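Suppose a colleague, Dr. K., hands you the sequence of a protein chain of 248 amino acids and asks what its three-dimensional shape might be. Before reaching for any lab equipment, you can write down a predicted structure in token form. Begin with the sequence itself:
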Amino acid sequence: MDKMLFIAMNGAKQAMQAQTNISHNLANVSTVGFKANLDAYSTWHVEGPGYDTRVYNQHDVTGYDLTTGSFSSTGRDLDVAVHGEGWIAVQATDGAEAYTRAGDLRISANGLLTNGVGHPVIGNAGPVVVPPAEKIEIGADGSISIIPVGQTADTMAILDRIKLVNPDSSLLVKGADGLLRFNDGQSNTAQPDASVNLVSGVIEHSNVNAVSELVDLIQNARQFEANIKIMRTAQESDEISSRLLRNT
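The predicted structure, expressed as tokens, is then:
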């Protein structure tokens, strides 16, 4: 009876954890450059006297989906998308370098070039600072060109270059903020990769498949309900056993 109850309780707990991951993916279905979290169930037998007939399960987030999201044209000079493999280097809230595919860039009140959630974009010598300009263009190689305020088109000059990288994906881990970092927990940084190119006036959308995630959400909800029913059955069986013992 107790084994039945604990196994069902564990199953319900793991289903709830899976729901959390699915809900996180669904919440970011419209987030620019978001990469969906991948998860999986693993099982192991409950050891004990006799045969190991009972099985526990465990839910784990196993990584992230590297599939490229769909592109859409925006016409904004500051919107960029990574063409093919690669990442844009940004500064995380802890000051360390991290990587993202979110290219919905903008200029803050302080002149910092940031992405849509406010992470400063890294250039040749740290975060990119853009002075007041008549026009800003971002080239395929990440070069940022500007026409200073009050100047003509023939004065356009390269200000900086966005750091574009393409490290081995197996070395990167995704953080709670959606940014990727090296998985050794150290302050390693990737070297610029000239083979990584940008497309201007375009953004990459999230690669979350909303329909698939909704199906998984429903399936996990049913698994949770099934485990709750087993727990209720265990309770009813315990009550019946108690009544039988009292009558003997």
